[in-house]
């Protein structure tokens, strides 16, 4: 009898955040999404929302506005969001600017200690605008995955985004997709879940009495916790 292969320890998830920009000016909501490059190691060719890993500068940068009372209440009900909730929102806004050219910002001082990543905001006398943001969900990559993230998904209305839409090359086919079309794109399961949340109008209606749902996995199968 062959001895059982030793179990490998699961990779620790890295903190990450995405921003779901929603345009409800027409009959059908439109969502800003792009396709990850085919050579990327994590979910290549999948359509995603702008976002990425938490950077050390995201915790040092200063926002122009803080979360409103509803968001603070959501954070209080979801201990896993904790003290990094604001830094992760900053990461989502920074990554959105880097990948799409759009800024979610208001007049303010982002701070000198925040480094080069935040220079576009600093040069324009702007800092991240957190007040309009809402939590949609958070998700943790399966334990068997060699690359893992603990992602937080924030939502914001498209009209607060300033700038000209331009891709950085990290996301291809970057565009505003009607929700019905977005649901037909090649997306991973958590992205599909977030899109369904948008369809219900939950991001805009989210209040302090709604805990942030967790999309996770058990024995390789999706598991939603609310």
Give an overview in words.
By secondary structure, the chain is of the alpha+beta class. Helix content is 24%, strand content 27%. It has 7 helices and 11 strands. The radius of gyration is 18 Å and the shape is globular. The N terminus is likely disordered.
On the 0 to 100 scale, the average pLDDT is 86
- Give helix % range: 10-25%
The chain-level structural class is alpha+beta
Structure summary, number of beta strands: 11
**SSE sequence, one letter per element:** EEEEHHHEHEEEEHHHEE
Radius of gyration: 18 Å
> How many H/I helical runs?
7
- The residue ranges in which pLDDT falls below 50 over 5 or more consecutive positions are 1-6
Distance between the termini: 44 Å
Put the structure in a nutshell.
The chain has seven helices and eleven strands.
What's the topology here?
Layout: E1 14-23, E2 30-36, E3 47-48, E4 51-53, H1 56-60, H2 69-77, H3 85-100, E5 105-107, H4 119-123, E6 126-128, E7 134-140, E8 149-157, E9 171-178, H5 179-182, H6 189-200, H7 202-205, E10 214-218, E11 221-225
Parallel strand pairs: 1-8, 7-10
Antiparallel strand pairs: 1-2, 1-4, 2-3, 2-9, 5-6, 7-8, 10-11
Keywords:
226 residues, alpha+beta, 9-stranded mixed beta sheet, globular, disordered N terminus
